[in-house]
Amino acid sequence: MFSLVAYFISFSIGYLCLRLIRDYSQVNHRNNDSFMHIIISLPIGLGISSFISFYSIIFFHRVHKSVFLLFNLAVFIILLFVNRRRKVMNRCIDTSFISKNGVLIGIVSLILFFVFVKMLPLFVKYPYGFWDALSTWNLRPRFLLVSDNWTRAFSSLMWASDYPLHLPLTILWGWLLEGGDSVIAPIALAIIYTFLIVGLLYYSLNRYYGNSASTLMTLFLVFTPSFLDVVIMQYADIVLSCYNFYGGVCCYFALKEKRLDYMVFAQAALGVAIFTKKEGLLFFIFLNIFMLCYLLWHDKRFLRRIWPTLLIPLFSILTLMIFRNIIAPPQEMFFKGSIPWALFLKKTQEFFGFIVPAIFQARQWSL
Questions:
Q1: How far apart are CA 175 and CA 181, in angstroms?
Q2: I need a surface site. Which of 10, 54, 289, 303 has the fewest CB within 10 A?
């Protein structure tokens, strides 16, 4: 269970970091800003810890438990000191949302608890997930943990050896405090990212459309069998979906409410998505192209305010370049060489032809 302590440290780092970014002059308690802040803190904090882990390995040439822990605690202490210097620690969190919506929050919490109890036997049956988790996401941190040469974790003989490292490093961060590899860390992360998606869906819809719409859509997502299947498999897709979802939602909040702080949150989430899977870079590109086109047409003034936030994911891109070009052997994800335009269109058509049946016809609509 000590892996949960590691993830709590990451949450604290994310929370303190976002308190420095948050624009308190525009906080609207009716829009549940305080709860949005808390929900966003954990994924951002886990992302920061994974970057700390990566550069710790680069600088010290191997995994050191003491170094990982020391660097994370050092970042936490620095952020705590800066928060106190800037006098933002005394900013209170509005808790009226709980008292006003206690019944609905209780219902959602009971649903999540029921889902957890339903998934628990499957986690016992498949403690290390399905094939991708066994061959990549849970195997790579094991190499990093026990091998005398940490670069063996990226051997060309391994499956997807050049995949980004956010999820393996986050699992490793939990294992270091556990004292060895354990099923708790990957299972805990699968549950954490699932609940983060569900929590953001509920609170983001509640922000504009009220309790009925947020509860209905939350139930719709929770009772989708294919969504729960991905959780059991422990694939990185649930992690990537979480960061893409957070990036998209925060970007929408920023555009709708002209909030610079939410644009920073969005770009930070997209930056972690880039370090999670290659598809994260594609989502980052497409979302920002769409956003820039929208602002060029509708609000050039706000565009001049937010354009520096586009530089935030460059740190992730730089990290990915270091990983791909210096450490990992180059690979192609789907094809070798260029893809003919006709083949690209065919694959795109097959993808969209698959996604609807995968969601609405997967097994049966029940838990």
A1: 5
A2: 289
